[in-house]
Structure formats: structure tokens, C-alpha cells
Amino acid sequence: MHRAVILLGLLIMLGSCSGNNIAFAEYKTIGDGWDKDQAVNFNFRAPDTLNRYNLFINLRNDEKFSFSNIFLIVDMEFPQGKVITDTLEYEMARPDGEWLGKGFTDLKENKLWYKEAVQFPDTGSYEVKILHAMRKNGNVEGVRSLQGITDVGISIERLQ
Predict the structure, then answer these.
(1) Which of 72-76, 115-119, 125-129, 136-140 comes out lowest in average pLDDT?
(2) What residues form DSSP beta bridges with 90?
(3) In the predicted model, is pLDDT for residue 54 greater than 70?
(4) Can you give the pLDDT at residue 137?
(5) CA–CA separation, 57 vs 27, rounded Å?
(6) How far is it, in rounded angstroms, from Cα 66 to Cα 59?
(7) Domain limits, the chain
(8) Which contacts (CB < 8 Å, 24+ apart) does range 22-26 have?
(9) Which first-to-last residue range defines the signal peptide (predicted)?
């Protein structure tokens, strides 16, 4: 009995320590289809200007997502107004169609690298805007309403 209590205490301590490096994390739920003009916005304050952080884009998708990859346009606006824009591509499925995300149900969660070892140069508020830039092969027009992305998020984790 005594060993079980100690083991339970150790498990609780390990579980509580695993999230200590997360400086910011937020998800936004997408309605019925992610419109190509619908930016998903995240506002956060710089954790500090001394340490380095990894930034991630987090996506949840279900079986309605009909692509093997995803293209995103991501803007990061600094407190002084400077904007950095990145066009990013991520694989979402293996060639055989199996989803790459984690999860036991039809809903898969993907933690995707956005920026590595970032040091925030300015104190104050930052804004990250995420748009999808999906197109069907041979089609110049983008996909108007992207189905299957249920949630979009970002997380900022302090380097250990």
C-alpha cells in the first residue's frame, strides 16, 4: 500500500513537470469549413527577451480532410509593427493515406514546427495570423472552404 502511494505521487510530479516549458498555448475551433479568407489570430505577450523558444502550429483534423498535405500562410506581427510572413507546407498523411497526427479516434492532432530557437527581441504584444492556402491540382483558385480542419492552435515552448 505504501509503495502504491509513493508511485502515485511520483507519477503526479512527473506529469506536472512535463508542461513547465510551455509559455503559451491556445486553440481556436474552426466552424464548418475553414474559409480561405478566414485568418485564425492569436495574440500573446513575449514571455521574455532573454530565453529562446520553439514555436509550433497545432492542427486537429478529422476524416473530412481530403489532402495529404497542407499549405499555410503565417504572419507574425511584432509589437513595433514589423511583420514576418512565412509560406509553409506540412505533410498530414503517409503515401498510403494513414494520418500522421496523434490520436486514437478519427480526430488527429498534429504539432508542426513553425520557428525554432526564437528569441523575442521586443517586449509587448505579438500577433500570429494563420491562413490556409490550399488548392486542388490544376486549379488556380484556392479551396474556398477547407473541410476537415477542426481546430488551429499555436504553442510556444521554452528551450530546455
Answers:
(1) 136-140
(2) 70
(3) yes
(4) 80
(5) 10
(6) 15
(7) 23-158
(8) 22/155, 22/156, 22/157, 22/158, 23/47, 23/53, 23/156, 23/157, 23/158, 24/154, 24/155, 24/156, 25/58, 25/153, 25/154, 25/155, 25/156, 26/153, 26/154, 26/155
(9) 1-25
Neighbouring CB atoms inside 10 A of 34's CB total 22
* CB of 30 closer than 8 Å to CB of 72: no
Half-sphere exposure of 158 (CA within 13 A, CB side): 13
Provide CATH code, domain 23-158: 2.60.120
Which residues have CB under 8 Å from 70's CB, separation 6+? 59, 89, 90, 92, 132, 134, 149
